[in-house]
Design brief:
Blueprint: H1 5-54, H2 60-96, H3 100-126
Length: 129
């Protein structure tokens, strides 16, 4: 079956738009999944185990607060250690493997030096310090 070119482009565009938005929505889908899994784990496994072996009766709200605290602690740890490490590795790889960004930046720096040289000559000619 042959799909006309314009129609094919429209279908591909719609599919691309769907995939693009789904990638952003996946964060919220993941949050919902985590909440549902946490609730099931609390009801079926954790609450009975904690009551039997530790003798504690943890309510759902206490469990939720513990989960939120663990997530926030993970985010703080990731912000303090993970993100700087990823940026450091990215920077090292960029310079190690002659990234186009490195060569583009070198060209920009060279052009800036040329412009500064011309500006110095102009300022010298106009006797501006």
């Amino acid at each position: 079956m042959h799909i006309p070119q314009a129609k094919a482009k429209g279908i591909l565009l719609r599919w691309g738009q769907f995939r693009f938005m789904y990638n952003y929505a996946i964060v919220y889908i993941g949050m919902i999944q985590m909440l549902l899994i946490a609730a099931v784990a609390y009801n079926t496994t954790l609450k009975p185990w904690i009551a039997q072996y530790l003798g504690w009766d943890i309510t759902l709200w206490q469990y939720a607060i513990i989960l939120v605290a663990v997530v926030i602690a993970g985010m703080v740890l990731e912000f303090a250690l993970g993100v700087p490490a990823i940026i450091a590795v990215s920077n090292e790889q960029m310079y190690k493997h002659n990234s186009p960004i490195k060569t583009d930046f070198a060209e920009v720096k060279q052009k800036q030096r040329e412009i500064e040289g011309k500006l110095d000559k102009i300022m010298e000619h106009l006797k501006i310090e």
